[in-house]
Specification:
- By secondary structure, the chain is α/β, with parallel strands linked by helices.
- 20% of the residues lie in helices and 28% in strands.
- It has 10 helices and 17 strands.
- It has a 10-stranded mixed β-sheet with strand order 8-10-9-11-12-17-16-15-13-14, sandwiched between helices. The chain has a 7-stranded mixed barrel with strand order 1-2-6-5-4-3-7.
- A hairpin with a 4-residue loop joins strand 13 and strand 14.
- Helix 8 packs across helix 9.
- It is globular.
Length: 401
């Protein structure tokens, strides 16, 4: 038999950047095209949690780990609270072709799951080169397209890219937030048990949903709290009418400064109520704005499950999960507000606390979904503020095994 050469696979997907860079690959997941900001994520696990994190709304995620999809997908690892809701992720960029899943928890293949979530994927991309490009030049806008026939309506594709405004100045929290109030009582997953409810909760926490993740709510519930979740547009009075023991500000997507007409005033008013308050990610940025600081767009953002952060209150370093493209400008924080955590990658702010008040926040994701569990103590720290107001003894932040 004469070998005449390898036959090249047909291009069925495109990734086009705003500077005209054109990358060809092989499509998976949903068909069509979508524009977004192209970022990269360095996590080696948890692709399903990442792709259902509402904080990624408006973004096309480049996975630096080459083998994505090898453990399949299931319903337990979805992070959007409403199982039927879409997270807002615009696309996924992969290095290797998706293989058949090889994990006992897999319920379906990633390709089929992406189709259901309406996420467009492209494989066969040199993700290392793309990541290096983003690190050097910042996160570009781009458009991802998938056409199994290989025939692309490039005029329509480019029109969508040109119409995408970018994330700066964009309020996306309204799009991913819950539309109505609901209650949450499910705790974290346990081996052999799955997810279980916490009976007879001692505390009542109100969470404002700017794009909340399921595992954050689980971590609050596991502290012995009944959690009431309110929409992003909830007023301070809406929150206080629930008579909470503490107030939580959730993660979410978009530019925090675009929420200055509704979220920031509500948080300012709630700070005067004297109740413990805890913010994560976008909630942290909004708290910074409410305290008088400013936020700014980052060059490449922080996206991964291996980010070192120093807790300046203890001197300890923890490895954290991060997902944000905006940051609080530490130098703009007013007197009476202390920077509590610091990114050891670039020195950017990763936490703050109001002096003498039970109010604090962090930029990273202590719920560890996906990511390490180094920072779970922060949920205990928050509920200890609640316990203190109730005259109860504190629980150790780092209990002995």
């Amino acid at each position: 038999m004469t070998v005449t050469g390898w036959q090249k696979k047909k291009t069925t997907a495109l990734l086009i950047l705003e500077d005209g860079t054109r990358l060809e690959g092989y499509g998976i997941g949903a068909e069509g095209h979508a524009a977004g900001e192209v970022c990269f994520n360095t996590a080696m696990t948890g692709y399903q949690e990442i792709l259902t994190d509402p904080s990624y709304a408006g973004q096309i995620i480049t996975f630096t780990f080459p083998h994505i999809g090898n453990v399949g997908a299931n319903d337990e690892d979805i992070e959007t609270v409403n199982m039927a809701a879409l997270s807002g992720v615009r696309g996924a960029v992969l290095r290797a072709d998706v293989t058949n899943p090889s994990n006992w928890r897999a319920a379906e293949k990633l390709d089929a799951w992406l189709k259901k979530r309406n996420i467009i994927g492209i494989s066969g991309i040199d993700t290392r080169a793309l990541t290096a490009r983003i690190r050097e030049n910042g996160m570009p806008n781009g458009v991802i397209a998938h056409a199994p026939s290989g025939d692309f309506d490039e005029a329509s594709i480019m029109a969508e890219l040109e119409a995408f405004p970018g994330l700066e100045g964009l309020d996306l929290a309204r799009e991913v937030s819950t539309a109505q109030t609901y209650h949450w009582d499910e705790a974290r997953w346990k081996w052999g048990e799955g997810y279980a409810s916490i009976p007879n909760p001692e505390f009542h926490i109100v969470a404002i949903d700017y794009g909340a993740k399921r595992n954050i709510l689980r971590c609050l519930s596991e502290q012995g709290a009944k959690v009431t979740v309110l929409p992003a547009t909830a007023t301070a009075q809406d929150v206080l009418d629930q008579n909470p023991d503490g107030i939580f500000l959730s993660n979410g997507p978009g530019d925090p400064s675009a929420m200055s007409d509704y979220a920031v005033p509500a948080i300012k008013e709630l700070m005067n109520a004297g109740k413990p308050m805890f913010g994560i990610c976008l909630g942290h940025q909004l708290m910074g704005l409410a305290l008088g600081g400013t936020t700014s767009k980052m060059h490449q953002g922080h996206h991964g499950a291996n980010h070192p952060v120093k807790d300046l209150t203890t001197g300890k370093v923890e490895i954290t999960s991060m997902n944000h493209g905006f940051a609080v400008d530490a130098k703009t924080l007013p007197p009476g507000v202390t920077q509590t955590h610091l990114s050891l990658f670039d020195g950017s702010n990763a936490g703050l606390a109001v002096d003498g008040k039970p109010i604090f926040s962090v930029q990273y994701h202590p719920e560890a979904s996906p990511g390490p569990q180094d920072s779970h103590y922060l949920f205990t720290r928050f509920l200890n503020h609640v316990r203190a107001q109730k005259g109860m003894d504190a629980v150790p932040e780092h209990p002995k095994p």
